[in-house]
Amino acid sequence: MATLSPLQIFINHIEKEGETIHGIAAWNKTVEENLNIIFRNDKALDGIRYLIKTSKDPFYTFARFCQFVVYIQYQPFLGLSMKLTDFKNDTDAALEYYKDLRDKNWNKSDTDKIMEIFEDIKNDKKNIARLVIKDQIR
C-alpha cells in the first residue's frame, strides 16, 4: 500500500513567535508556485492574477490553506509576498496576534477575517501541510 506524501507549501524564511509559526514567501516565483498549490483550479486564482496584471495600486487578500492563515500581498514594482501563519490551534496566540494587528491600526474587517479563518481551521481540521524552505533568504 502506497503512503500519501504530506502536502507541502514553499517559503523563503521562517519565524517563530512562541508556538506560532510564520512562513514567509518573499520571492515572486515562490508565491506563484504557492498560489497554484493553494487555489488549484479555483476561480479566485484567476481574480488574483487579473488584479496583478491590471492594478496600479497595492492589494492584499486572505485565504486558508490546511492549517495556515494565508496573507497574500501585491505591491506594484515590488511584486508578490505571502505570509502563512500556523497558530497551532492556540486561541490565545490567535487573539494576541489579532490584538497586535489592531494596535497597528489594521482594519477591523481584516482582523476579523483572520480570526474567522482561524476559527474555521480550529473547527474543521483538514489536511496538514508542511512548510518547505526553498530559495532561502539570507
Biggest sheet strand line-up? 2-3-6-5-4
> What's the helical proportion of residues?
25-40%
How many individual helices?
4
Give the count of structural domains: 1
Low-confidence stretches: none
- The H/E string reads EEEHHEEEHHE
Shape: globular
Provide the structure class: alpha+beta
Span of the ends, CA to CA = 40 Å
Sheet of most strands: 5 strands, antiparallel
- Count the beta strands: 7
Description of the molecule:
The structure is a single chain. The chain has 138 residues and is of the alpha+beta class. The chain has one domain (7-133). It is built from 4 helices and 7 strands; from the N terminus they run E-E-E-H-H-E-E-E-H-H-E. It has helices at residues 28-39, 43-54, 91-103, 108-123, and strands at residues 7-11, 13-17, 20-25, 59-65, 68-75, 79-86, 129-133. The strands form 2 sheets. It has a 5-stranded antiparallel sheet with strand order 2-3-6-5-4. Strand 2 and strand 3 form a beta hairpin. It is globular. The mean pLDDT is 91.
Spell out the blueprint of helices and strands.
Layout: E1 7-11, E2 13-17, E3 20-25, H1 28-39, H2 43-54, E4 59-65, E5 68-75, E6 79-86, H3 91-103, H4 108-123, E7 129-133
Parallel strand pairs: 1-7
Antiparallel strand pairs: 2-3, 3-6, 4-5, 5-6
Helix pairs in contact: 3-4
Quick summary of this structure?
The chain has 138 residues and is α+β, with helices and mostly antiparallel strands. It is built from four helices and seven strands, in the order E-E-E-H-H-E-E-E-H-H-E.
Question: Which key phrases capture this entry?
Answer:
138 residues, alpha+beta, five-stranded antiparallel sheet, two-stranded parallel ribbon, 4 helices, 38% helix, globular
